[in-house]
Amino acid sequence: SKPRILVTRHIFPEITDYLAQHFALESNPEDVLWSQAELAQRLADKDGVFITGSHRIDTALLAACPRLKIAANMAVGYNNFDVDAMTAAGVQGTNTPDVLTETTADFGFALLMATARRMTESEHYLRAGLWNSWRYDMFAGAEVHGSTLGILGMGRIGQGIARRGAHGFGMQVIYHNRSRLAPELEAECKARYVSKDELLAQADHLVLVLPYSAESHHAIGAAELARMKPTATLVNIARGGIVDDAALAQALKEGRIAAAGLDVFEGEPAVHPGLLERSNVVLTPHIASATVPTRLAMARLAADNLVAFFDGRGALTPVNTPNQ
Ligand code: GLV
Ligand code: GLV
């Protein structure tokens, strides 16, 4: 009989149809946001799950779902997985790398520009009917072209942002990462490797694109913000928790950096009230990969991971090697 698969959120109907050709499918067309306990109940008799960042695979869930063999995440980041627990329980995890790289880099650059050039703040002013004349410094922001672009986390998305900055906007690109890029990649991105301290001190615009882990938790906190230029902008398209949002709200309030552009938040969908209060913060609801073609490609890749796995071909984009 066909493997039993649960799809945790409503997704593209063509992807559910595709999955239904291969599996006995339980889906969620009403898009109810199940609790973890409800998820565990529904998963108890399933062999695999198509999952999103809305839910976690953790020890409690694994204990309740002994049949589970694979969790296919529709995201490149998988901090919603307890990977060690999954590996120990013999559960394959997969993610969606590559298909979202350029789209997410586009958004990182858009957020950088919107933040530096004060686009949402000025739009609110216009819509509020406050625009009554020219003023020499009205919404004068920070320069983008020719400035120094700092990138923390130089994976595929970071490299995409570096190429946009270097080739499209004549920026000096500096980066910090756990490991240095190969020389030919550094040359292609026109990116110079620096220490984290130098990155903080020299960047006019600092973009965060590193994966979330215990190690990257609060990689940007009060001490790091204090090292940045008072004119600098900070952009986070990585994960909530990489920035200490309370410390960021305080730094913005005290004018210790100029502005921030944030697509991800600690404890999202809740947003720190100190960030909501500030006009020099551009806020978006975790949409960096959200174009129709890219979201479709992500869903297709997550589905193909399930199909390949149960065909015995092995997962296409695994994040672990589960114990047998
Ligand atoms: C989105 O945040 C992703 O990890 O794909
Ligand atoms: C992370 O996986 C990235 O693509 O940057």
TrEMBL record:
InterPro entries: D-isomer_2-hydroxyacid_DH (IPR050223), D-isomer_2_OHA_DH_cat_dom (IPR006139), D-isomer_DH_CS1 (IPR029752), D-isomer_DH_NAD-bd (IPR006140), NAD(P)-bd_dom_sf (IPR036291). Residues 5-320 form the D-isomer specific 2-hydroxyacid dehydrogenase catalytic domain. Transmembrane segments: none annotated. Belongs to the D-isomer specific 2-hydroxyacid dehydrogenase family. It comes from Diaphorobacter limosus. This is D-glycerate dehydrogenase. The lineage of its organism: Bacteria, Pseudomonadati, Pseudomonadota, Betaproteobacteria, Burkholderiales. Its EC number is 1.1.1.-. Keywords: Oxidoreductase. Residues 109-288 form the D-isomer specific 2-hydroxyacid dehydrogenase NAD-binding domain. Coiled coil: none annotated. It comes from the Bacteria. PROSITE patterns: D_2_HYDROXYACID_DH_1 (PS00065).
